[in-house]
């Protein structure tokens, strides 16, 4: 019996790369503790898991709000994001995104939505924040898409620390302070072209700009 | 299959949530049909998450978690369901009408336009739909500032190539082009024109309240 198992195992190893790669990627997804906690919140409304997520992400989100110039609304943003996490956790699928990425997109959308409500003029807009900023989910259940997402997240984490400081500075200003590339150039007193080339260099090192775009 | 994509820098500004609503709309319409760019935005969202994680942390008040639990417990809102494909497309939702039945204004020969800037209150850009009748030619023209365009229907060609449905084009003041609608369908595009920044009365009204 054990012989048979061994043979099976060997056969699996011979399989084409695409099939084989899914195993470590899935395992990697399971290893991410925040994603595990978020799954628990979604499946069983686990308040202890929810509290652990709060302890980890709330201080990050508060900084995010403050860096965005929303200091007087920072607590409100953190609360909105967490209420949203609780409500939407049942839709979370760890195979599609890590918890940190999922929470980042909720924070981004909530920030946009709050700003929009605050400056709303008498005319209402026909489309909602989510219509513009939530990525469409067509074909999302394809394993290749999930695989790509999990791999890219790990890769981004690992390679971001290797980027030179000037590239990280520019990226952080775009993501944390909502500055356009032009505003970053003005603030750092460098030409717009320099900002753009730093970002392009960083993105190609992070492999955001894919060589093989058919993935 | 789209061949002309937004550049990675625009996708990054989309992922960071920094684009104006009309620009976000152009990117969003493209993403709807382009798996390749969706993949890039997924990775960029991960980049956003990792950048956020590496920033300083600011502690939150000790009672906040209890406040959140109280809100959750008192909420009677039903839990969200997995979203089905919406019955109306984003464009229809925005325009309130099929794109071919809009009150187009004939401009010059084969060109009709419809200014929809009013759909985006509080924005500093002009948003226009343009229609070139099938086989029609637009007169040669240049652009004021930067014009971001997405093809919504049909296709057109100019000196830069052929642009078909969901293709993305950015033209600047340097680009003079003379588009021709190809194929049997009217070519309809959505364009966002960045107006030169002039500090007039209307502009100050639009200033983001959080600009320091």
TrEMBL record, chain B:
Domain of life: Bacteria
InterPro entries hit by this protein: Anti-sigma_ChrR, Anti_sigma_zinc_sf, ChrR-like_cupin_dom, RmlC-like_jellyroll, RmlC_Cupin_sf
Signal sequence residues: none
Segments forming a coiled coil: none
ChrR-like cupin domain segment(s): 99-190
Transmembrane segments: none
Protein's name in the database: ChrR family anti-sigma-E factor
